[in-house]
Specification:
alpha/beta; 8-stranded parallel β-barrel; globular; binds sulfopyruvate; binds magnesium ion
């Protein structure tokens, strides 16, 4: 195990995300919300992580309604990016304000080690796409200008800005989603994400067929998760994001173990699986510190003769 500092290695991470988006093949990203979950997701084989606004909010005990500030998101991104050697695509919501706030936020995400950011065409403060029916969209021109401002201000040339349209979430027709995606492509976005909360993927698959890979296409199949990956592959989708599943797995596991320990007044012989201590040390790379101590640490005390 070596110390992995992707934030000190931003160019290679942005290159890696760019390669994923442009590979011509379907890739998957899984949500991660802290350094530990990031390492677990990377170790499982994912070549890309999604720093989900929903998950970062939930693990902070607040709602996915911009109750986390953008500086909170930057700080949490740094912990995630610092823990792994795969690219992190950050959910930037609306950019947390106008073009000026958004471009400053994006620049700070770059410094924090993100490989890309996804900005969505909702109004600030945003509402989680699965909550309620109030999903008013930003003006297309204004959101396009926000994309242009962020692209013009990014520090590393390879940093990816994914423009996400919430047109389908807002109940608008496919044509509106396509028109918005095209406007964001013209504004300089590196990829487009189209989101849906329908139980089936029909709209998403239609969108992808019409879109014809004008830019890499990103989706998040949370509600239409019955759809086989092959269907996404066949219409040329570049990246499918499992958007909240590490956070939900953690919530279920913590709930189960907390109830069991409370009921039994003991942590002995739990039914709930726990990571062994040596597994935790291995995950976080204690062996690297051991090796580093041998090279750089205080010399062992010489016993007096
Ligand atoms: C998130 O993960 O925060 C997303 C995706 O934006 S979703 O929650 O599916 O809207
Ligand atoms: Mg989100």
């Amino acid at each position: 195990m070596t110390l992995q500092r992707s934030s000190a290695n931003g160019a290679s991470m942005t290159g890696a995300l760019r390669r994923i988006l442009h590979s011509g093949e379907l890739h998957f990203a899984l949500e991660a919300h802290d350094g530990m979950s990031a390492r677990i997701v990377e170790r499982a084989g994912f070549g890309c992580l999604w720093a989900s606004g929903f998950a970062l909010s939930t693990v902070s005990g607040v709602r996915d309604a911009n109750e986390l500030s953008w500086t909170d998101i930057v700080r949490m991104t740094e912990a995630i990016a610092d823990a792994v050697a795969v690219p992190v695509l950050v959910d930037g919501d609306t950019g947390h304000g106008d073009f000026n706030i958004a471009r400053r936020f994006v620049r700070k995400l770059e410094l924090a080690g993100a490989a890309g950011v996804c900005l969505e065409d909702k109004l600030f403060p945003k509402t989680n796409s699965f909550v309620g029916d109030d999903h008013a969209l930003a003006d297309v021109e204004e959101f396009s200008a926000k994309i242009r401002a962020c692209k013009a201000n990014q520090a590393t040339p390879g940093f990816c800005i994914v423009a996400r349209t919430e047109a389908l979430i807002a109940g608008l027709p496919l044509e509106e989603a396509l028109a918005r995606a095209e406007a964001y492509r013209a504004a300089g976005a590196d990829a487009v994400m189209v989101h849906s909360r329908a139980p089936v993927a029909d709209d998403i698959l239609c969108f992808a067929r019409e879109w014809q890979q004008r830019l890499p296409l990103v989706i998040s199949p949370t509600t239409y998760c019955d759809t086989p990956a092959e269907a996404f592959r066949s219409v040329g989708i570049s990246l499918a994001i499992w958007g909240n599943h590490a956070m939900r797995a953690a919530a279920a596991a913590i709930d189960r173990v907390a109830r069991e320990i409370h009921r039994r007044e003991s942590v002995n012989d739990l039914d709930t699986p726990l990571a062994r201590l040596d597994e935790v040390f291995d995950l976080i790379g204690y062996d690297e510190l051991e090796d580093a101590r041998a090279s750089y640490g205080r010399p062992a005390e010489v016993a007096p003769s």
